[in-house]
Amino acid sequence: MSEFSNFIKIIEEFIDFFDHLIPIEQEKLEAAIKNRVSFVEECMHKEQAAVLRLRGLEQKREKEQERLGMKDYSFRQILDRVPEDVSSVLKPLFDRMSEQVRQFQSISDNAKDIIEVNLHVIQSSLAEKAPGRETYSASGQKKDHDTTKHFTSRSV
């Protein structure tokens, strides 16, 4: 068991990492829904810092797996090759981490979709205001599309 103690600690660090990152991603999603660009940007800066930490954790995990003679093994392959007492500790950790990754990806995908929709709305709005997009009436008068009429303001 002690041979795997560093590997177990690294997996626990991954779990802590996602415990920290998931709320940031949730905050980004909520900010995107509310169209709060500055909050989205702030979350993205936090994520960039988190990516650096993630790279460091990945390197530690890879080195530890190599030390254990399990280089390039998946978590399932590791579970199949470790003693039962180690497997009983690792399996719940792997399961928890897998669930966190799924949750993070789901939230991240939703945030990405919302941001893409918001960008599309902005681009469409800008395209309508672009020069050369004006329309004219039959008499040659330029139509003003900025004045919206409410249905109750029309004569019946």
Topology (SSEs and partners):
Layout: H1 5-33, H2 37-67, H3 75-81, H4 84-129
Q: Would you mind describing this structure in some detail?
A:
The chain is mainly alpha-helical. Helix content is 72%, strand content 0%. It has helices at residues 5-33, 37-67, 75-81, 84-129. The protein starts with a helix and ends in a 27-residue tail after the last helix. The model has no long low-confidence stretch (mean pLDDT 87).
Provide key terms for this protein.
156 residues, mainly alpha, 72% helix
CA distance, first residue to last residue: 85 Å
What is the general shape?
Answer: rod-shaped
Helix/sheet category: mainly alpha
Helical content stands at over 70%
Could you provide a short overview of the structure?
The chain is 72% helix and 0% strand. With 156 residues, the protein is an all-alpha fold.
